[in-house]
Fold this protein.
Amino acid sequence: MTARLTPIRASVGPGTGPGPGVGPGPGVGPWAGRMVGRAGVDPTAVDRAGVNRPVNRAADRFGRSYDPVMLHPESSKFGLLFSVRMTKTLSPAAPPARTGQPRPVPPPRPRGTGWSRLRFLAWPLYLTGLLWFLRTEGIPAANDVLFLWLIGALLTAAVHSGHGRRGFLLVLRDWVPVMAVVWTYSLLRGYGAHTPWAPHWLPQLRFDEALGFGETWTVRLQHALYTPGSPHWYDYAAVGVYLSHFFVVFLLLAVLWRRAHHRFRQLLACYLTLTFAGFATYLLYPADPPWLVAQQGNLPHLSRVVWEVISASGLPQADSLLENGSQFANDVAAMPSLHSAYPAMLLFHFWPTARPWLRAVLVGYPLAMTFTLVYGAEHFIIDVFVGWAYAAAVVFGLRWLRSRRTTPSKGTADLAG
């Protein structure tokens, strides 16, 4: 649709103009003054009404001259009227089809073979097998079992997407070494329990008593909230939060491996560095958890809430394939708390690019894990704080090293300039 403006002049009586040499009359407004002296405007012309005003000598498409000053809404006192004529722009008609000539037929889409259609059964088969395993064997809480199911999920995704052999090789190339490193850590962690020096417990106990005004927060929370043999809803929630430690990081690594491989490498570097930093601390500073300190008689009776709730609920646990035996057990690996360090690592790693709702989750997860660990007698509060400090040092330290590698040196910048 286009609009055409056709100016129509009305008769203007004498005396309405400002007089010779004065310029635009009253009511014309500043817009008219800006038209004086411009291209296409004759400042010495007199219009047909006898008013000494600058008149645009340019003609419209019909050959009629008009004054642009009179087009301003404030110039109605000079009797300018508008007629707006709307016209439709019709699209050209389609050429008539020739009789007797068939229309071109698009080539048929290639049909998949029977084997290519079977890939859509990959996820149903995988989920069926996973549900059967959970029902018969129990919840997988060991690294090797979790890794096997995780690698199986990635292989299933490769089959479903049609990547074939190349997808299989990429999964095995990136994830089998990760599984080997984590399994090696679990083995070394077990040997860390046999250090020549005795585990520490008194400094952690004194710190928590200072925070609890003479009594640890673990004792306060269990006396106020826990009922042995009758779990509450928050006890089951604590079980879910505690068990998330065993798979949340791996699931996020799998998602990043599929969608943002460079971030997968960054998070994996943080995870491995933080894990082995914790292992080194376990060797140098073995520490007892609160439940073990209570068993030794240095605290009132405490319950391991998470494991008691799991036992009371009858939830089975899947046995590990490789990490069985006392060589993998380490009850004095409490300082730092990796259960609290991993959620803090996710918070520091994803915070710069996270959306507001995701930032709320990133903050809530470490707090929920802290409550679970302290309430369940798995860690002292000082263990949690040290875990947060380790996570911050690892994430920000590796980020600083990456920025040093990607930022050109001053000498290079000067040469480039």
